[in-house]
Amino acid sequence: MKSAVAGIEQFFYNLGFLKRTLQGLWYFVRQGKASYKILTMQIYYTFVQALWITSVMALGIGSAISIVGVPMLASFSQQQLIFPILILVITIELGPLLTAFVVISRSATAIATEIAGMVISHEIEAYISIGVDPIEHLAAPRFLGVIISLVMLNIYFSIFGLAGSFFIASFFNPMTVDYYFSNILYNLSIGDLLILVAKSVVFGAVISICAVIEGLSVERAITEVPVAGLRAVSKAFAGCVLAAIVLSAIYYIVLI
Predict the structure, then answer these.
(1) Distance between CA 75 and CA 116 in Å, rounded?
(2) Where does residue 175 rank: exposed (0-12), middle (13-18), buried (19+ CB within 10 A)?
(3) How many angstroms separate the CA atoms of 205 and 213, rounded?
(4) Residue 165 near residue 62, CB atoms below 8 Å
(5) How far apart (Å, rounded) are the C-alpha atoms in residues 205 and 208?
(6) Cβ contacts of residue 13 below 8 Å, gap of 6+?
(7) Overall number of domains in the chain
(8) How far apart are CA 86 and CA 66, in angstroms?
(9) Alpha carbons within 13 A on the beta-carbon side of 34
(10) Which domain holds residue 131?
(11) pTM here?
(12) Per-residue pLDDT tens over the stretch 212-247
């Protein structure tokens, strides 16, 4: 019972922190020029440096679906179904979640441990003492940076997964470029793109909020820093999985 109450309290605390971060984001966009470097570095670390592993995953998943799926569907004379399956897996379901997991393993840990280290070294207190809001200066640019990075990573994952899978799949099952991409575009709807962007934004918000909250939750012991990173990862994983379930349910109920 106590754990359930604590979970509900934590949920509403997270919502309140999200509201406060959104307020700080408005100030950051209007006047936070001093924090633009944090935003730039967050995008560089979360998006640019994660491109290589995202490329490998996208290519591997797209190729595996095509190599295994095309012959199997051909045995039922249903080769055309490979295109909606590719879009379903790469763009709608598995792609956004895998990309979020990559960002969690890299950025959630980094953000939580960095902010926790700033708490331990009294940097947060120093910001407050000179009138700088830590939410506006530290949380808001990371929040925005992770969301922007996830949107770009998921778009890149979809393009690279769908396009890259063609070159691998055509080696085993020859098909023309026009045939492949015309069918991809025919089966790709506006709703698919909307759910991709929606998942990217929600996952980015969940990851950044969990990381910042856990980073700020430490007290004085240096041993709390790695623990904060681990908590941020576990909570971000759980939050993204739950968000994926809810968003997918809304997508299939409303848009299909």
Answers:
(1) 56
(2) middle
(3) 12
(4) yes
(5) 5
(6) 213
(7) 1
(8) 8
(9) 7
(10) 2-255
(11) 0.90
(12) 999 988 887 888 888 889 999 999 999 999 999 999
